[in-house]
Amino acid sequence: MEIEEKKKKLILLIIIVLVVGGGIWFLGSKREPQELAPSDPVESTEATSLAKDTGETSASLKEESTTKKIYVDMKGEVKHPGMYPLQEGDRVYDAIQAAGGLTKAAEKDRLDLAQKVQDEMTVIIPKKGEKKKDWLRYPKGETATSQTNSSSAGGAKDSGQEEEGGKISVNQATSEQLQTIDGIGEKKAQKIIQYREEKGQIQSLDELQNIDGFGEKTVEKLKKALVL
């Protein structure tokens, strides 16, 4: 009896093992196979970042290649006179900084720091008290005065107005050029330039009356020498 009882227990144990094992196999066969990710998320992020950096670098190189390099000869009262490479669109201020800045003897008030420089231009910084008319020398012998006058004359022709030689553009003239006009000294010239910088282009010569020191009679007199 005892042997039969052991056989029954053994058979029951085998049945249980078979049932459990079969169930595990069945469930395993129903499970869908895992698909491999197309790429590691970290690697994908790094690739995206690399592509972005490459694109930005290419754009930066393209921008640099489209910016024209110019050369300006700095003379006079700068700390390090000589020829300097600048970018197209740079101004007198940038040229002075490239040459180490102004000396203590430089005539600062006669400079138009906002004026753009050109390739092959010579910038001559005057000394205090020096009466130098053309401190900007343009290529091919042109001067700042001739540039302004030709621009003013051209504007008059284009608008159909009668050309009046010798007039200076109140919107384009430098401090030095304005001082060539009777009735405008150094202080008044600087006031005009400061007004332009703060308010923008002058729309009418009568607008000069908004500047301290320019009365109605003064402006009427200046109209003979100025254009917009």
From TrEMBL:
<feature type="region of interest" description="Disordered">
    <location>
        <begin position="34"/>
        <end position="64"/>
    </location>
</feature>
<dbReference type="GO" id="GO:0003677">
    <property type="term" value="F:DNA binding"/>
</dbReference>
<keyword id="KW-1133">Transmembrane helix</keyword>
<keyword id="KW-0812">Transmembrane</keyword>
<dbReference type="Pfam" id="PF10531">
    <property type="entry name" value="SLBB"/>
</dbReference>
<keyword id="KW-0472">Membrane</keyword>
<protein>
    <submittedName>
        <fullName>Late competence protein ComEA, DNA receptor</fullName>
    </submittedName>
</protein>
<feature type="region of interest" description="Disordered">
    <location>
        <begin position="134"/>
        <end position="174"/>
    </location>
</feature>
<feature type="domain" description="Helix-hairpin-helix DNA-binding motif class 1">
    <location>
        <begin position="176"/>
        <end position="195"/>
    </location>
</feature>
<dbReference type="InterPro" id="IPR004509">
    <property type="entry name" value="Competence_ComEA_HhH"/>
</dbReference>
<dbReference type="InterPro" id="IPR019554">
    <property type="entry name" value="Soluble_ligand-bd"/>
</dbReference>
<feature type="domain" description="Helix-hairpin-helix DNA-binding motif class 1">
    <location>
        <begin position="206"/>
        <end position="225"/>
    </location>
</feature>
<dbReference type="GO" id="GO:0015627">
    <property type="term" value="C:type II protein secretion system complex"/>
</dbReference>
<feature type="transmembrane region" description="Helical">
    <location>
        <begin position="10"/>
        <end position="28"/>
    </location>
</feature>
<dbReference type="GO" id="GO:0006281">
    <property type="term" value="P:DNA repair"/>
</dbReference>
<dbReference type="Pfam" id="PF12836">
    <property type="entry name" value="HHH_3"/>
</dbReference>
<dbReference type="InterPro" id="IPR051675">
    <property type="entry name" value="Endo/Exo/Phosphatase_dom_1"/>
</dbReference>
<dbReference type="GO" id="GO:0015628">
    <property type="term" value="P:protein secretion by the type II secretion system"/>
</dbReference>
<dbReference type="InterPro" id="IPR003583">
    <property type="entry name" value="Hlx-hairpin-Hlx_DNA-bd_motif"/>
</dbReference>
<feature type="compositionally biased region" description="Polar residues">
    <location>
        <begin position="143"/>
        <end position="153"/>
    </location>
</feature>
<keyword id="KW-0675">Receptor</keyword>
<dbReference type="InterPro" id="IPR010994">
    <property type="entry name" value="RuvA_2-like"/>
</dbReference>
